[in-house]
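fyi for ur records
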Amino acid sequence: MYRKSRGFVVNLNGAGMQKSFVILSLGTAVIFVLAGILFASQAGRGLSSQQVGKMTVAMSSGVLLHTMSYEIPYFEAVQKNEENIDVSSLAFRLITSINPKDPRSFLGNELPGFSLFDTEVLVSGKELALSELPFESSPPPEALKKEADTAKAAPAQAETEKPMEQEVLSTNGKKVFFIYNTHNRESWVHAVPEARAKNNPDLAMDSETNITLVSKRLSQSLEKNGIGSSVGTTDFTGRLINRGAAYALSYAESLKAVKAVMAQNRDLNYFIDIHRDSLRRKSTTVTLDGKSYAQIHFVIGMRNKNWEKNQQFALKVHNAVEKKYPGLSKGIFGKKGGNGEYNQSVSPNAILIEVGGVDNTIEECYRTADVLAEAIAEVYWEAEKVDAKTKPKRS
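which gave:
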């Protein structure tokens, strides 16, 4: 009995088959080349906290709960009430870094000057609209050149909101904090007649009544908490005006002062640059227990290679503020555009704090400065306790 064997022959001579084979070969080659470039560029690197943060931010609460439910059964029941998981949208965002809900992800690298809006939300107590993100605008030339016609008296110090407890801890005369103002002439609409008349926040610049008053208040409050601090009094904006230099060079100018005080005082380890935001009142004010406060937020320069250490310090202060005054801190924001470093490479304890906006009052800023001092003191003394425990005992 004979068996018949059947077979088939593939004809590759057809034009359609040849075209398909060429496309498949080229596609495979491109995939291997891209994979090789990707892994070569990431060789020796692990996932940074920034990369992990971006991945988790890209995920909705439903996705996170669903993922966690594989290990923690409790979340399986919780995530049933959450929204449906859009896997395709999540994958697209992770692969391309494009968020369909955020137009900056489409336009950020294409439009000149759009990098000013590249603020990343590192820590936030609530969901923020794009219009609520911190924004730093350069004042017009007339605001920089204008000098005060007559000397104005500084606003009266607001009463401390609640009496401080009797000092127990002290730096014993050592100045460990340096507080300064890179944009030292930032003022408020109510304090500048021209800005008030035109209702133009960009004109809220003044050589006397300005953000330096808040720095002085913060320093005084830190002293009441036993922490020695000094306040920089250099008029950086005035220096730039006299030299005819661009306002964008403000941080280069203030960095000189920071390095100078560091060389003079080795005890300095904390550096705080105080600013006020350009946003209007509704985005910079909160009412707590019947009193209005100027909201704060922290800015971390992500061009500093050690920016995560600065973020850790900012996070401790943010948490301390939110623990006692929920809603006072808007969060921590990272920026790569603009200056992108903000003199924060000088110390892991260097941060930039925006206190209120152009429409806040001096009294509101003073209240916030007192709260901020309490939070900073709490973080500082806790760190001192940890350092004392880790230092080797002398025999």
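The first helix runs from residue 15 to 41. thats all i got for now
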